[in-house]
Prior knowledge:
Elements: E1 2-6, H1 14-23, E2 28-34, E3 53-58, E4 61-67, H2 71-82, E5 89-96, H3 108-118, E6 122-128, H4 136-153, E7 160-165, H5 168-171, E8 176-178, E9 190-194, E10 200-204, H6 218-223, E11 227-232, H7 239-245
Parallel strand pairs: 1-2, 1-5, 2-4, 5-6, 6-7, 8-11
Antiparallel strand pairs: 3-4, 7-11, 9-10
Helix pairs in contact: 1-4, 2-3
Amino acid sequence: MQILLTNDDGIFSPGLAALERALLQLGHVAVVAPATEQSGVGHSITFLSPLTAKEIFDGPRRRGWAVEGSPADCVKLGIFEFCPRRPELVVSGLNGGLNAGINVLYSGTVAAAIEGAFFGITSVAVSLEYDEHAQFDRAADLAVQIIRQTLEMKGPEPELYNLNIPTRAMREPTAVKVVPMGVYRYGEKFEKRVDPRGRNYFWATNEPPPPPGEHETDVSALAKGYVTLTPLHYNLTKAAVLTEMERWKWGALT
Length: 254
């Protein structure tokens, strides 16, 4: 199997290296990752300037390609320029920090997986809860176990998945929960400060999401120590409202 591996933490991140080692169990891995950290860039792409890419080595070992661009840029270049053949799987990660709930919309890690799905390739975003002493190798091994089983059980059509691993799973046995992404609204608070020149500036506070509702989501399941797997899609059309709007009678425009 040809696998394209990328991330948003940069080509030198320990999570990327750990996931590359683990994915070798499944096939040949081509690494194409940002030259520098691109956390939180979402699905941005580079089109007003050229993309530069440099082949990176660790001693005699070839690490992969470092791209001066976004995670989505890396997937495009990886598919069409750097993979020896079209990949059958795109994996993005292993991210240092969860990408659950509404953060899915901001995440460069998830955006890279979405980019792979754009091109009809099964894609998986993989994230580990932040820990200063993160056990990336253990998390990568768990991720590959789940990816392998997912590929065995899924249907023939390409799919897009978001996989999150809590730190509790590093210490004790856990299970996989297939859950929807949470859409709780938070992140509305800022701390206002004044700099030495008397100018106001603002820090976004790291307020926790509100308590979960009656339905289990990735956010609530992760809080209980479960590994979460969420199928995603990138078609943002609201189908029910579209059907209703198609029946509207528009007046003439003058």
